[in-house]
Amino acid sequence: MPNVYAVIMAGGVGTRFWPRSREKTPKQLLEIVDKGTMIQNTVKRISDLIEPKNILIVTSKVQKSSISKQLPSVPDENIITEPLGRNTAPCIGLAGLFVRRMDPEAVMVVLPSDHIMHDEEEFRRVLRLAIWVAYESGRLITVGIQPTRPETGYGYIQVVDEDNSTNPYFARGVFKVKTFAEKPNLTVAQQFLVSGDFLWNSGMFIWRVDAIMREIKNHLPEMNAELIKIDSAIGSEKYDSIVETTYRTIRGISIDYGVMEKAKEVYVIKGNFGWSDVGSWDEVYRISGKDEDGNSVTGQTLLQNTKNTLVHAGDKFIATIGVQDLIVIATDDAVLVCKQGQSQDVKEVVDYLRRKQKVDFL
């Protein structure tokens, strides 16, 4: 088997999880649902497959010290910082430079830092299969989630229904990707669900490092030119300044749009392990335990005639009377009250605070 490295993308600020998620302590550094922070649980669930010295974290400078404290088993030099957020393609390309130096034939497992898997053993089975196929075939692999509802908040992957004659891995549950689809409206999402050949795009990827770096070179030549500059500076005193300069030049683009949609012979493995990207407070409510009135409560509260409501009281006491279908989140300096179904709009609060330069609340 190949050397396997994990690249965990942890640079986001989690704007949809305001007021708990802040720039210095974003969603991945918080306990949201399970015990342990989201990034701690991400590392823990792959610990049987990938040892800490082979785990790389890509994050922002402001989050590095907190990540170091939360993940003492991960070597400090494995925590790579980006000066600016430039979406997933530059993040993966930057990490790929470091992996390639350690082993040019290694397999990279690229994972977001803030997902939940309820069946972790099945998740590891899927990863083992993906690692083997990626190493043997040299193809790009992604994991698609079997949809359970017409979700408009996810991208989709359409699979090809075929047999072993054109896909040697079909019998193992590995499918060819027909197309990637952007986040649909509700009508289209319902059509995707009925068709049976669309999966949710999980944002998880598995590939040999030489394969992804070759595809970046082919499909994102301008980005590749900037990565070459960074590569030549790794280990030198010029590294930080060159990364700073190149990141101001690199165009922000997702790996899905920049590479995956253009690459040939992309494979997808279906994941059925209780996945959630926990992308909003609505999703937290959906996956949380609830009482007989449908309420999910954390902290000191009094809920009278209250139904189907998510309450996180923090260190405060919260009382609700005669309400339903709400999200109530309290921190030391802010309170969010939101109607369920509209928590995707919480990011607009963060946009407002930035425009007004109310940095104390960011």
Protein model, in words:
By secondary structure, this protein is of the alpha/beta class. It folds into 2 domains: 4-276, Spore Coat Polysaccharide Biosynthesis Protein SpsA, Chain A, CATH 3.90.550.10; 281-361, no CATH class. 33% of the residues lie in helices and 25% in strands. It is built from 11 helices and 15 strands. The protein has helices at 38-45, 61-70, 88-102, 120-137, 186-195, 209-219, 221-233, 239-249, 255-260, 281-287, 346-355; strands at 4-9, 55-60, 79-82, 107-112, 116-117, 141-145, 156-159, 174-181, 198-208, 267-271, 275-276, 296-304, 310-321, 326-330, 335-339. The strands form 3 sheets. It has a 5-stranded mixed β-barrel. Helix 2 (61-70) links the parallel strand 2 and strand 3. It is globular. The termini are far apart. The model has no long low-confidence stretch (mean pLDDT 94).
Q: What is the helix content?
A: 25-40%
* Topology-level CATH name of the largest domain: Spore Coat Polysaccharide Biosynthesis Protein SpsA, Chain A
CATH architecture descriptor text of the largest domain: Alpha-Beta Complex
How many helices? The count is 11
Strand line-up of the largest beta sheet = 6-9-7-8-10
**Total tally of structural domains:** 2
Radius of gyration, in angstroms, nearest whole number: 21 Å
Residue-averaged pLDDT, rounded? 94
Can you tell me the overall shape? Answer: globular
**The CATH homology group name of the largest domain:** Spore Coat Polysaccharide Biosynthesis Protein SpsA, Chain A
Structural class: alpha/beta
Largest beta-sheet characterization = 5 strands, mixed, barrel
Low-confidence stretches: none
* CATH top level label of the largest domain: Alpha Beta
Distance between the termini: 45 Å
Number of strands: 15
